[in-house]
Known about the structure:
With 364 residues, the protein is of the alpha/beta class. Helices cover 36% and strands 24% of the residues. It contains 13 helices and 15 strands. The strands form two sheets. A ten-stranded mixed beta sheet has the order 1-7-6-2-10-11-12-13-14-15, with helices on both faces. Strands 4-9-8-3-5 form a five-stranded mixed beta sheet. Strand 8 (140-148) and strand 9 (151-159) form a beta hairpin. Helix 4 crosses helix 12, helix 10 (249-259) packs across helix 11 (264-273) and helix 12 runs antiparallel to helix 13 (341-355). It is globular, with a radius of gyration of 20 Å.
Amino acid sequence: MDYLYNAYAKLFGVDTSPDGTQGDFQTPRKIVCFGNVLLDRVVPLQDLELLKRNDVTLGSKGEMDMEKLNNITTEAASGSTCQHNLGGSALNTVRILKQLETPAQFFGAIGADKAGEHVRSIIEEQGVEARLQKIEDVQTGQCLCLMHNDNPTLYACIGASAHFSAKELRHAALHSTQSFLRPIERKQILYVEGFFVPQREEVCDYIMQELVRERRHLALNLSAPYIVSQNFEKMMELAQRALLIFGNRQEFEELARMAGSENVEQMARKLLESGKKIILITNGASGVQLATNYVDELSPPGHLRFEDYRAQSADYLVDATGAGDAFVAGFLHDWLKKRSLSECVRNGCNVAAKVVTQVGCNLP
């Protein structure tokens, strides 16, 4: 297992050896993201026959074994175009942050296969800063997005991502010349996507117990209702530790249900009792609800408050699958600039409204 690095290092004069491992390391970034690496394949559907034959519900999302995923992809692409994009929730957020000129770094894993090489070539082309563990004998994660009338059906097999090593992360954190960590007296966000939690509990524990402290904050994305329900204890532990929690209404409703709360608002109040937090509940075109007791980064918790914000209307809708990831990028971009929470929410909405006008999670 080794670390692969992208062309970002070359832009800053960092030497890379022939096997792809990095030499000297750059200034630690204010945002470090942990997530699955996926090669996204987007295929438009003219009808629903393919979904019916494979017992897949339109608009559903989940995980699928690689063989079935490849078979469906081959069948779907035989009569239509297949577009390849770099995917993965946290990786999407890193890519949008780069476009917003807020450098961020991504940690994940790829397989020693052609898909992994394809992912690496896209990362190099886009200049994304990534530290990727290379896993032998396991395929790179892939995601299939079947689009029908602007309604995406998403299924993924995370493949090599599931083998991300806590040992390798610990080495990267403790290495005196290559550490990705800022000093604890300087602001830094460690962002974990919910999809990263299954099978990597040891990594999550290391992040929470060893890395998050002082001004080094944890941010969590709930990612999907099934992630919340199937990994509830770890997700709740992360939520209680996090300063920032992102998710859509359905994901927070599932968290509330699993926690035994009557509704999302009651569950949010319980979370806010555990410490200072910024909870962001997105609800598509209906807007965003903010639940928080945050005053500023260095002050103790203040009064609990709920605020509702309208979503910015998109000029037109092409692909909404990366809207949540884009919202996170827009929010964090402004938060690091010490702007008010209302400005951060509005910028998140603004970035998301632009991204949904493109195929894949990209700004125009």
